[in-house]
Amino acid sequence: MAPKTSTAETYAAQHRGDADHYATYFAGMDASMQQKVALTTAHFPTRGRVADMGSGSGRGTYDLACLYGGLELVGVDINPVSVDMASSAYQRPNLRFVVGDIADPVFPPESLDGVLDSSVLHHVTSFNGFSLARLETCLDNQVRALRTGGIIIIRDFLVPEGPEEVWLDLPTTNGAAEGPVQGLSTAALFECFARDFRCSVNRDGPVPYTRLDSPHPGHVRYRLALRAANEFILRKDYRTDWDVELLEEYSYYSQAQFEAAFRRRGLRILSSMPIRNPWIIANRYEGQFHLAGLDGRPLPYPPTNYLIVGEKVPSGAGVELREAHSEPLAAPRFLSLSAWRHADSGQVWELVERPGRTVDLLPWFRQDGQVFVLAKKGFPRPIVNACADHPNLGGAELSGYVTEPLAAITHAGEAPDKAIARILHERAGLPADSIRALGEPAHYFTSPGGVSERVSAYLVEVALAAGLPAPDYGSFTSSGSVRELDARQVLRACHVGGMVDARLELNIHRLLRHLGTSPGPWIGASIQLTEQSGGPKWADDALTPARRAVFSTHEDGTVGYLDLCTGTFSEHDAEGRVLASVPREYLVPREASRNTTVALPVVRTREGIRVGIEHRELPVVQHFTGSANLAVTPAWRLPRTLTDLSEVPAFIAERLREEFSVTVRRTWELGGSYHATPGITPELVWPFAVEVEADAACDSRLRWIPLEVLVSQLDAVQDAHLLVVAWRLAHALGVLG
Q1: Are 480 and 399 in contact (CB under 8 A)?
Q2: Is 225 left (phi over 0), alpha (psi -120 to 50) or beta?
Q3: Within its chain, how far is the Cα of 222 from the centroid?
Q4: Are strands 562-572 and 320-328 parallel, antiparallel or unpaired?
Q5: What are phi and psi of 66, to 5 degrees?
Q6: Which DSSP letter does residue 30 get?
């Protein structure tokens, strides 16, 4: 029997030399640290103790410690060199580093408020004989160390979904055919990889592949498993430590396996999202290989990373909300459907409405120079999981429990100040005397094409009392909890898809501007506009379309574009038992998908940055304001034939050309997708910034306005989608300061 290997020996193969070698390695990792921090901080508590497992250089642990002075950070790493370097380089009263194997019980049970595993769990499998059993033990120990309500976040790699085998075409002309790996062509590097790489699916031999002629000049084609292709794509640029990288199997679980592992342990999944890092896509994927199915159709780029966030809930509590079944709604009890005819065109519009008026509250306070907001965390919104048969463009999955502002429906005739005091007490446990100041409301339409809803949103300065209660209301086992969140960290999470509620984001932007506080750096996709000559003129009426009342009620029935449905949503615990079964009414397009895209056209000229705005006449606007006209960003429901986010830019380009006579130069994802009104519809919105040709923009029916002017006048904007993309574009281009 072989002697037992010590913990230090198990991971010894990872050792990269002396302190200088470690510094070089960690410098490369830290380039993406902003994104890592953004994807985690919006979910972690602001007080308590959080363990950063596999803390490495300590930079990310230090960043978290700097963000929250009331949060104790403990960095854990197996390598004493890493721990010594981190302890010397990063020192704070709320920060310490310890040596330990993250798969072992490093912390006592119920002693942590958060656990972060950032790009580290693949080490647990790779350096333990590719053992998933060791990984399961690791997760057991980490979840056991969490207190109830604690958060565990895993950011790692993912076994991609797709066909089992693929064509991978790699260039032969960008390097040598043989020699040191630093100088090899990508194709030659792949053949070295295939010869030497070992993992759980080819432990004892090379990666199987077939080499063929490629239809792409200067390339060679390989037929191989998608999983193996992804392993090579992920590491092809890590040549400095190539031999060490070959020892690690990056992908060990699929998204479904991650989610099942969380639910088995009583974790409510707050977010489960494949990540396609914009910088990696632009600099390491685009133009550097071709990936296609065996039918020849190009495949979308595999995820560059994956994030899953779980909350430890009490035994027997719900961990998932699913739509058990749905059916057309013949006799609505909650929602109502009406039809409106346009006087000039005769076009008939459908509107869905729920009773009462929607109010959003954003309680906030300052502490130690930071701005915190109170939000509802883990609130059950089962409708976000409706229509599972519609395309999932980004691959993200939600448990149905979301983070959102304190939202409620006001009673008829209830005075705003009375309603606000009531809602704060009922939904956050805040007494009326905790209100220090109440701001003027902002009004916006959440989904003006089909939802008759205008939100009134208030900023409420409060005096925070310790130990907020969490009142329960509603039909499910929990109504979530009220948590304090760092305002700027929530915005950063929105930049990279870590938060999904648009209204929380909008109100935080309003709050920071009200306080004169910078939102911090933009960390989404980098938007690089090219200065063009000429360009469209500033339209003085861009935000103030002419007032017209052009709609009247249509009594001859509806046109059948929208469907009202009733879904039965079941709440399940960790063992799969049904805890509650609740009907919910919602709307969905009859033919289109639940996905919407919004695209903000933009040009840069010598005169500055200008964006294009559309004027539309909509019945919901007339219903609330007496005039049908609204300044909006171009937006479209997406067809169900679009199944991947990579297909959306071409759709946008076609629509902008046909409807506005503009030519697209380049398109960028403008932060993560969002839900605008998840209490009524599962609509999921995908925002984009679209650079267009300046000359063609001159003849477009779009109204053009300087971005700085738009930002200064956002209080006059009532289209929630235009608000989201305007704030994000201004943030990305540095207009917000």
Answers
A1: no
A2: beta
A3: 33
A4: antiparallel
A5: -70, -35
A6: G
Place of tokens 């350096």: 127
DSSP 436-498: EEEPPPEEEESSTTTB--EEEEEEEEE-PPSS------SSSS---EEEEEEHHHHHHHHHTTS
pLDDT of residue 15: 53
Low-confidence ranges of the chain (pLDDT < 70): 1-42, 465-471, 556-559, 737
Residue 300 CB coordination number (10 Å):
16
DSSP symbols for 106-120: -S-TT-EEEEEEES-
Rounded CA gap, 234 and 230, in Å? 6
CA distances for 529 relative to 109, 181, 184, 312, 666, angstroms: 52, 36, 34, 44, 9
| Alpha-carbon gap, residue 66 to 64, rounded angstroms | 5
d(CA 270, CA 306): 14
Question: Cα(538)–Cα(76) distance, rounded to whole angstroms?
Answer: 56
CA atoms of 651 and 548, how far apart (whole Å): 31
DSSP string, 542-602: TT-PPP---EEE--S---SSEEEEEEEEEEE-TT--EEEEEEEEEEEESSS-SEEEEEEEE
- The HSE-up count of residue 447 (CA atoms within 13 Å, CB side) is 28
Q: Would you tell me the crossing angle of helices 33-41 and 487-495 to the nearest 10 degrees? A: 120
What are φ and ψ of residue 416, in 5° steps?
-55, -45
What is the rounded distance in angstroms from the CA atom of residue 721 to the CA atom of residue 438? 25
Q: Hey, which bits of 178-218 come out as E strands?
A: 210-213
What does the alpha-carbon distance between residue 700 and residue 660 come to, in Å, rounded to a whole number? 5
> Collapsing DSSP states into helix, strand and coil, what is residue 645?
helix
Kindly give the residue spans of alpha helices, DSSP state H, lying in 281-352.
none
Q: Distance (Å, rounded) from C-alpha 294 to C-alpha 291?
A: 10
Which residue's structure tokens are 């509650």?
A: 580
pLDDT tens track for 74-105: 999 999 999 999 999 999 999 999 999 999 99
Instruction: Give me the residues paired with residue 582 across strands.
Output: 569
Indicate the DSSP class of residue 159.
P
Cα 79 off chain centre by: 32
Amino acid 13: pLDDT:
57
pLDDT at 510: 96
DSSP state of 575: T
Q: Could you tell me the two tokens for 54?
A: 């596999």
Tell me how long the chain is: 737
3-class DSSP assignment, residue 17 = coil
Asked whether the beta carbons of 392 and 686 are under 8 A apart, the reply is no
What pLDDT is recorded for position 558?
57
Element containing residue 637 per DSSP (H, E):
strand 635-637
Task: Answer yes or no: are the C-beta atoms of 96 and 49 closer than 8 Å.
Answer: no
Please tell me the predicted confidence (pLDDT) of residue 473.
74
DSSP character string of 268-294? EEEEEEEE--HHHIIIIITTT-EEEET
**Phi/psi at 155 (5° precision):** -120, 115
C-alpha–C-alpha distance, residues 70 and 95, integer Å? 11
Q: CA-based Rg of the chain, rounded to a whole angstrom?
A: 26
Name the residue type at position 29: M
342: left (phi over 0), alpha (psi -120 to 50) or beta: beta
Per DSSP (E only), the strands in 301-369 are: 305-312, 320-328, 336-342, 348-353, 357-367
Q: How many angstroms separate the CA atoms of 9 and 698, rounded?
A: 67
What's the per-residue H, E or C state across 410-434?
A: ECCCCCHHHHHHHHHHHHHCCCHHH
Please answer whether residues 329 and 209 qualify as being in contact, where contact means their C-beta atoms are separated by less than 8 angstroms: no
